Amino acid sequence: MDEVEKDDTKRLKRTYRKPAFAVVALRPEEAVLGACKTNGSSGPSASKRCRNVGVNCSSQGS
Amino acid sequence: MTAVRSARVRIGDIGVALECADEAMTIAFPAEAERFLVDGSAVDATVTAAWGDLGQSDAGVELFDSGGLWKLYRRNGDFVYRFRSPAYGVRPYKEARFNADFTAGEVTLDAGCHDRGKPASPLEYPLDELLMTNLLARGRGVEVHAFGMRDRDGRGYLFAGHSGAGKTTTARLWQKEGVLVLSDDRIILRNLDGKIWMYGTPWHGEAKLAAAERTELTRIFVIGHGPRNELAPLAPADAVSRLFSRSFVPFHDAAALAYTLEILQQIADAVPCAELRFVPDASVVDFIRRNAT
After folding, report:
1. Could you tell me the pTM of the whole model?
2. By three-state DSSP, how is residue B151 classified?
3. What percent of chain B is predicted at pLDDT more than 70?
4. A30-34, B58-62, B250-254, B278-282 — which is least confidently predicted?
5. DSSP letter at B242?
6. Are B248 and A33 within 8 A, CB to CB?
7. Closest by Cα among B8, B271, B7, B253 to B135
8. Distance between CA atoms of B27 and B81, rounded to whole angstroms?
9. Closest-CA residue in chain B for A46?
10. Is the pLDDT of residue A36 over 80?
11. Does the complex come out with an ipTM higher than 0.90?
12. Which residues lie across from B47 on neighbouring strands?
């Protein structure tokens, strides 16, 4: 094997990296579209401004 | 908008027809949604709406509890969403029943919880978005928690982030640059005709930015605040996991989850992704334009 072939072989080989888990945070309270962010609670509650019934919520779950 | 008895909305090139099945009902849409109304285009789903009494009806077998406004049930092969508000106690104020592929649905608004003298909003949030995420997850695309825009040179940038990551802040900074903002909070991504497209949606954030437009996606940024503007490229697998955690997916449906991962993989393979740490001032705009080539 000449020098060029040896260099090619080195480039083809990759360093082995053991598989590993990576934890990615999920925000379920956002992802499930269950709440209205504007009034800071789950859907219409004490705030009449975000009744979610007949009144549109301007920052819905943002 | 004048109250009507039927309408068609098109979001992400997905059409939904809404019709009143009750002669006593009219419907109206909020201003942000009106720009997504269309005439005569093809529909992917048809939804009818009527007044009813939800006080004593059986919901079905519970599939999923959002922990907030809604629960999902299975009833005679259909999916049933029931919506409750603390304002009305245990009585549901709305129920939406869909067939298995979400192409047909019936919305019942509880007459005891609504003023029947006013136009109704049968698809009012979060039902409209729930319907859309189910339609997307059945082979059409994915909705992500992101600010999306088209820059003056035609490049489409997506800035994905959880609440508080800086999407609205970023949107307001770019808006001053005269770009087209598709949405400051919710973007639909689709793989069509060999290209990755991003679409504006009516579900805006606090900046209230929404456009019924689409643009080809050039770069993806997963954003967060930092002491300086800096970019760190993401490998596709890493990008997929980060985008998935910032996507709106029907978590009760294994096939939908599998498809969502598949479409995100397609997107991550086609579009360069990077983590963006940014300073919340105009310097990030120049930084992106100089570095996102």
Report:
1. 0.89
2. coil
3. 99
4. A30-34
5. H
6. yes
7. B253
8. 20
9. B87
10. no
11. no
12. B18, B105
- With contact defined as beta carbons under 8 Å apart, do B6 and B25 qualify? no
In this structure, what token pair is assigned to residue B214?
């689409």
One DSSP character per residue, B23-47 reads TT--B---HHHHTTEESS---SEEE
Neighboring chain A residues of B115 at a CB cutoff of 8 Å? 54
Question: Residue for token digits 């991504």?
Answer: B189
The partner residue sitting opposite A58, judged by closest CB among B69, B85, B208, is B208
Which residues of chain A does B171 touch, with a Cβ-Cβ cutoff of 8 Å?
A: none
Q: Is the dihedral of CA B145, B81, B214, B1 positive or negative?
A: negative
The shortest C-alpha distance from B16 to chain A (Å) reads: 19
Q: Is the pLDDT of residue A44 over 50?
A: no
Which amino acid makes up residue A41? S
Question: Rounded to whole angstroms, how far apart are CA atoms B212 and B10?
Answer: 8
Sign of the C-alpha dihedral, residues B249, B251, B252, B253?
Answer: positive
